[in-house]
């Protein structure tokens, strides 16, 4: 099983970061590689079980289901249902934690998934750098 873990600090208070990032469908508005995203069936984007379907700037199409969500603990977890990437059993989590000194927020985004050894390096780059790291930086830029 492959693992990817990215963390960073956003120079904004926890409530501000979480209120912005908690929208499971919001990535279509701020993530640089997401072209269009919608929640299937008109469900709320914080309802466990909702599915977001989205397209990426490189022509990909993905569907992901929200499998855990907590405003109290500032995290959500989701799984990929459909993806052009050669992966299986993909589960990812996004979490925000208050940094007590300086009123900043520690943001973590990680995933575990099965991938063939010959594809692992490329997929780890796509998920880690191109998706998670780029997404955290995009949130930070939007909140400046």
TrEMBL record:
Coiled coil: none annotated. Keywords: Plasmid. Gene3D superfamilies: 3.30.530.20. Pfam families: Polyketide_cyc2. This is SRPBCC family protein. It comes from Qingshengfaniella alkalisoli.
